[in-house]
Design a protein that fits this description.
Radius of gyration: 20 Å
Strand order of the largest sheet: 1-2-6-3
Structural class: alpha+beta
Distance between the termini: 61 Å
Number of helices: 11
Shape: globular
Order of helices and strands: HHEHEHHHEHEEEHHHH
Largest sheet: 4 strands, antiparallel
Mean pLDDT: 87
Helix content: 40-55%
Amino acid sequence: SLLDSLLVDREMAKKWNAAVVVDRLRECLGPRGIDIVHPFAVQRYNQNVVGMGKAEWTMPEGSHPSTLAVLIGNTKQLWGPLCEHMATAHRDDWHNEKKCPAPVDAYVEQVVAEALAFPARGGTAEAELADSEGAPSVLEARFSHGHGKRFVHMQRACAVSGFAHFSPHCFLNVHAVYGPWISLRSVVVLDVSMDNDLAVPPYPKNPYPEADDAIAAELAKLTTKGAKPDWKAWVALRDLATSESARVHRFSEPQIRYHYIYDRKAFFEGQK
């Protein structure tokens, strides 16, 4: 009956509320090294970019007054699972730019797509079917390497989501725990209401304001007309934005080399 259908839909909505969706994504993504999974209302991002005069950057809101978006990224924890993947799935072509032009982007897209299928946790076939039944649809997924209509302003999304402060001095998002040692990968919008499911934190404060003057001075040197800083100078700027407590979250040297100069030999070093 119609009533029975409505009751089933209501039960599915309860089962797949925003908190459950985020927990399931964390379960799927965390072991693959994607350990930043942070919920926020996509309307906050849209209002921000419209205020910048960039309405073309908005993402779909669906029919909800407050629609679940998820900021996806990683800390240094990405490196181990990524190197393991490169040593298996791309054992013969990880060093070949033609066969494997953007290995990290490809890995992230694959892992996120698999997570968004909301695979069942396991058990009997009946239990698996019941576990995945009614999973929410994805309104849109954009990645940091997207362009044109697929562009998402990751740093704005990170800030308005409440995850990490955006520093105008080093142009990096700086987290209260991880410092600037985070990589922003994707924003996913799902057909799920945020209402009453998750508390959305306020715009994050600068966790390390005492470094601002030194960072601004160093950035001025690096961007002076005629200056030709190498990549290590930009790493040093990132280090300036790193508090003492956040140093433990600094990327490893191989991870830094790939991050800044795409040194593919770093993948092999990550397996040692």
